[in-house]
Amino acid sequence: MVSTLGLNVRFDSKENAVTSHEPVLEINLKGPAGAKGATGATGSTGARGATGTTGATGSTGATGAGGVRGTTGATGVAGATGARGVTGTTGVVGLTFRGAWSASATYIATDAVSFLGSSYISVQHNNLNNLPNSSPTFWRLLAQGATGATGTAGATGATGARGATGTTGVVGAMGATGARGATGTTGANGITGARGATGPAGATGLLGSFDELAGLACTRAGQAGTIAVSYSAAGAVLKCVTAARFIDNGDGTITDTQTGLQWEQKTGTVGTLVTCTFAANNCPDPRHVNNRYAWSNTGSAPDGALFTDFLERMNGKICSVSTCQGFGGYSDWRVPTLAELQTILDCGNGSPCINPIFGPTAAAFSWSSTALAFGPSAAWVVSFNNGFVGFDGKSIPYHARAVRGAR
Questions:
Q1: Residue 357, phi then psi, degrees to nearest 5
Q2: In Å, how far are 225, 266, 345, 346 from 245, measured between CA atoms?
Q3: Secondary structure of 8-49 as H, E, C letters
Q4: To the nearest 10°, the Cα dihedral for 83, 86, 87, 92?
Q5: C-alpha span between 131 and 107 (Å, rounded)
Q6: Where are the strands (E) in 123-278, listed by range?
Q7: Are 202 and 135 in contact (CB under 8 A)?
Q8: What's the distance, Cα to Cα, between the start and end of the chain in Å?
Q9: Is there a contact between 286 and 314 (Cβ–Cβ < 8 Å)?
Q10: pLDDT in tens, 345-361
C-alpha cells in the first residue's frame, strides 16, 4: 500500500468466513475536505440507570427560632387569712425637750428643759414660773452636764472697713522708761549764728539732773507708785507709775493693766431690783447697780433691753438732753464676752466676787455677749455670788456691766 499526495490506496488481502470475498485492491482518490455538515438531531434519552447507594447522614442543622409563649394560666384561689398575732405591750411615754427654761412658759409632766447647765424634767401639769433648781415638787434633776472644754478659736475674719475716727481718749499711764541708748558721735560744729537779744530772766529751776528723783514714792488715783524720769526735746518728763492691776481713772471707769480693758464702774446702793425696758424708760441711769436687762425679746436675736436700752444709753444714743455724749466721752461700750467677764471674777474676799474698786456690785448673775453654741435661745452668764459659770434663756433679766477696748 502506497499513499502519496491525495492518493488513498487500501488493499484488503484477507479472506475469511466473514468477508467471503477475494482479495481486493481499492484505490481512492481523496480530494480536499468538504464543509462540515449540519449537526444531526439529538437522539432519544436513554433508559434511567439504576439508583445509587444511600449517602452518609449529614450534620444536624441549626436550632430553629423559639415558639410563641403560651398564655398565662388563671390565678389560683387565695389561701385563708392567718390568725392575728398577740398585741405587744404599750411603750413608756417619752420626754419632750422644751429648750431653755422660761418663767413665762407653762410645762406639763414629762417636759424637759435646760437650766443653769443642767437638765430637769417636769413632774406636774400646769407647771408655771417654778425654778427647776429650787422647786422639787414640780421638777426633778435629769442630768447635770460638766462644763465643756473651750473650743478652738475660729479663723480671724476679714478686716472690716475703717470706722470713723472716735474722740480722743484720755492720756494713758506712761510706760516704764526704756534703757538709754548709746551716745552718738558728736557732729561737726555749725556756723555760729548772730547773737539774739537777751531775753527776760527765767524762774529759778531745780539744780542738777532730774535723775535723782527717779524711784521716789508717789501716788496716782489713790494707787501707790514710783516716779519715772524720761527726757524729750521739750525737756524732762516725770510720771507716777503704779504697780496695781486695776486703776480707778476717777471718771467712773476702771482700767485693767493686765488685759488693757476699760470697765464701767457701778453707782448706787444694792437694793430693790429693777427690770429695765426700753418702752418703760424706767432706767435713766444705765450704771445703777440694781438694773437688770433681758438679752433678747424675740428668743435669740440681740434685741432685748440689754442692747436697745443699756448699751444705747452707755454710748450716748439715748439721753434727756439735746446733745448726747457717750459715758466717759466714749461711744464704743459693749457687753463683754464670757472670757472677758471671767477676768474680773475674784472670790478671794468673799461675795460679791469682784475687786471693790469696781464699785457696788450685786451678788447675782451678770450677762455676757456669748450665745450658747448649741442653743440659740440661751447665752452664758457669770455669778458674782459664788463664781459659778452657766447659761440661761435670753429672755431672763440679769445684771450687766459694760466694757470697751481690745477683744
A1: -65, -20
A2: 12, 19, 14, 13
A3: EEEEECCCCCCCCCCCEEEEEECCCCCCCCCCCCCCCCCCCC
A4: -160
A5: 12
A6: 127-128, 139-144, 217-220, 223-232, 235-242, 246-248, 253-256, 262-264, 274-275
A7: no
A8: 153
A9: yes
A10: 999 889 999 999 999 99
Supply 403's cell numbers.
466694757
DSSP 407: -
Answer yes or no: are the C-beta atoms of 328 and 322 closer than 8 Å: no
- Alpha-carbon distance of 122 to 105, in angstroms, equals 12
CA-based torsion, 197, 203, 206, 209: positive or negative? negative
- What are the CA-CA distances from residue 354 to residues 7, 244, 363, 383, 385 (Å)? 168, 15, 9, 10, 9
Band (pLDDT 50/70/90 cuts) for residue 109 is confident
Contact 240, 227 (CB under 8 A): yes
Residue 169, pLDDT above cutoff 50 = yes
Rounded Cα distance between 80 and 192, Å, is 131
**Exposed, middle or buried: residue 130 (CB in 10 Å: 0-12, 13-18, 19+)?**
middle
Q: What value, to the nearest 5°, has the Cα angle with vertex 118 and ends 112 and 124? A: 35
Q: The pTM is what?
A: 0.44
Report the amino acid identity of residue 260: G
